[in-house]
């Protein structure tokens, strides 16, 4: 693809190009910016709200609750087994909406491109993003493109912000998590984290693990349809199940205990974690969710999960009991250890 | 400020720090991330939707039209006369909502921080963002924070995405711009662009120009209240009035002619533009808007603008006539020249 002219519907202007790479001109708001948007972005994302060409999209909404969530993705490398930054951004934001109980209504897409990024790579990522959004059935209705100088960015950063509608009857909040709740996990842990690390510069290793990156909206709709009594939903992304449980423990009114023997971890993931000296409890998933649900409803919820293709590996992995706000693990040998939250490293830029 | 512990409501953990600067640990999703959010971001942005601590905000909305718009800000330098990247991000997104005729309902804020960013600088920008949002009366209800390695970002990039409600009765779209419309500009041109360039590394020059960065929602409400017949509103940001008019010409059904003698440009801006060899028509404003309105309503609209503190410098600067989709300027000497769209450079990272 060559971006050599901007036509503005018939108004031609020449554009300085750097062959088939992003240049600063693509971010300066005039001819090259328009040409990039019109030839590379709009054709993939086309929908009536976006095509209106205004400063923002205008959508019709019924009265009710709206969920609103934002994430910027800076994953490195940009492409990894099972996905790329484009599909990951769509899944991540759709999933944050789903964790609010919301059905996705619309996404925005804001790109920060580094000078020198090959246009072919950009188009591959944009096409992946569009495919992921089409699969979910959510339109990308508004966007923004900026360019920064070589060495001031890293290929591409993607912000996706999502709007969703929350059906009446659900009240999903961490503050509702309480003693008596069981913790139900939809599938195996740590596959996204291991897949990204397996192809990271300076760390790459051979393994067959693919990212679990996937949209959870349909699984969540099925779960909440079957068991509206769910107290809270979360997806264990950056920081993994472990960090997410610490955050919930801060809001909930009880102590969380995980059953080590119940935690689903694929053998290849376990092997990679042993190789790297990492705990799968603290590695990211991008297509799993965790439900906190009163014990009386847990079996029904597990059944609803297992009846969905994305929940076949679901398991009850722990419970909330009376106690201080902390997270413990009951080991395979019947012992009990308090979980410690890692200070921060070693996993930046996993999403 | 020292971010040396994360407490997660009582669960303490030590965090590796780099004195008073951003480290990769601040972006890894565990203790340091939480501490950064809880001590530096939440206190500035506090509001009930944000404080709920969920993966997204849940808002109540009445039935009707919702405007949704996104922008990532990569302005360089981060602070400039009259503003900084934080206030600019709030104003830019509030203004894109206003251009849709919308009143701001909520903003999101997603930050990409570069390792090594001084925490004091981050806090100054976050405080400025919060002050700008408070001034508008719009809450920042959901957010995200990522950290990239030194040399993979540039201090801080800010994405703000906005939600607004569009009152019934307006239909603002570039497709409605038509022959017979006059072009009404709310104030003087190019002040934001000149202010940023005046402090840019390698280009800095002495001048008294401050950015015009400001929120337009109140001015727009007054304009539309007085003259609901407005066809389209735009803010001439990146690429300036010139690039914006080319974009409108692509959608409208006519030719645009500007009156050079009517264009408001401050003497200091004109002097700076002559020094730099730049045309103020193509330099960004961040607190001005342009209305396309049928001639019969233009005088009333001008009156409404001039009655508002932010519209005192308003002027009718051109008109749309039958003709091909192009932009012309009638010069002070009575001549007529077609405007040429600059190819892209020389002004990256102006917003």
Summarize the structure.
2 copies of one chain form a homodimer. Chain A has 351 residues and is an alpha+beta fold.
Give the number of domains of chain A: 2
Oligomer: homodimer
Biggest sheet statistics of chain A: 7 strands, mixed
Shape of chain A: globular
The separation of the N and C termini of chain A measures 28 Å
Mean pLDDT of chain A comes to 91
Approximately what portion of the residues of chain A adopt beta-strand conformation?
Answer: 15-25%
CATH architecture of the largest domain in chain A: Alpha-Beta Complex
Runs of chain A with pLDDT <50, length 5+?
A: 1-16
- The order of strands across the largest sheet of chain A is 11-13-10-14-12-15-16
Number of helix segments of chain A? 9
Alpha carbon gyration radius of chain A = 22 Å
Topology:
2 copies of one chain form a homodimer.
Chain A: E1 5-6, E2 13-14, H1 31-45, H2 48-51, E3 57-61, E4 64-73, E5 79-80, E6 83-84, H3 85-99, E7 103-114, H4 119-136, E8 140-148, E9 156-166, E10 181-185, H5 191-198, H6 217-226, E11 232-234, H7 240-251, E12 255-259, H8 267-276, E13 290-294, H9 295-306, E14 315-321, E15 327-330, E16 336-338
Parallel strand pairs in A: 7-8, 12-15
Antiparallel strand pairs in A: 1-2, 4-9, 5-6, 7-9, 10-13, 10-14, 11-13, 12-14, 15-16
């Amino acid at each position: 693809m060559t971006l050599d002219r901007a036509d503005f519907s018939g108004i031609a202007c020449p554009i300085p190009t750097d062959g088939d790479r992003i240049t600063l001109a693509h971010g300066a708001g005039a001819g090259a910016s328009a040409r990039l948007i019109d030839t590379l972005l709009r054709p993939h994302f086309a929908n009536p709200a976006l095509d209106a060409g205004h400063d923002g999209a205008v959508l019709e909404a019924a009265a009710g609750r709206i969920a609103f969530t934002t994430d910027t993705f800076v994953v490195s490398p940009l492409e990894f087994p099972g996905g790329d930054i484009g599909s990951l951004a769509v899944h991540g934001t759709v999933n944050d909406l789903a964790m609010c109980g919301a059905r996705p209504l619309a996404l925005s897409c804001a790109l920060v491109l580094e000078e020198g990024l090959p246009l072919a790579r950009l188009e591959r990522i944009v096409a992946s993003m569009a495919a992921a959004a089409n699969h979910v059935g959510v339109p990308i209705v508004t966007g923004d493109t900026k360019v920064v100088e070589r060495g001031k960015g890293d290929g591409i950063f993607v912000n996706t912000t999502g709007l969703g509608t929350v059906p009446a009857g659900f009240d999903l909040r961490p503050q509702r998590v309480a003693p008596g709740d069981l913790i139900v996990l939809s599938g195996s842990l740590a596959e996204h984290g291991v897949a990204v690390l397996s192809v990271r510069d300076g760390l790459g290793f051979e393994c067959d693990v693919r990212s679990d990156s996937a949209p959870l909206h349909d699984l969540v709709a099925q779960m909440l349809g079957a068991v509206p009594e769910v107290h809270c939903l979360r997806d264990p992304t950056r920081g993994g199940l472990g960090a997410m449980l610490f955050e919930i423990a801060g809001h909930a009114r009880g102590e969380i205990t995980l059953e080590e023997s119940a935690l689903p971890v694929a053998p290849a993931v376990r092997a990679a974690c042993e190789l790297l000296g990492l705990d799968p409890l603290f590695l990211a998933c991008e297509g799993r969710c965790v439900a906190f649900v009163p014990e009386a409803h847990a079996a029904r919820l597990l059944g609803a999960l297992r009846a969905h293709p994305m929940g076949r590996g679901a398991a009850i992995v722990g419970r909330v009991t009376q106690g201080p706000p902390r997270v413990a693990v009951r080991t395979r040998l019947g012992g009990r250890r308090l979980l410690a939250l890692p200070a921060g490293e070693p996993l930046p830029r996993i999403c």
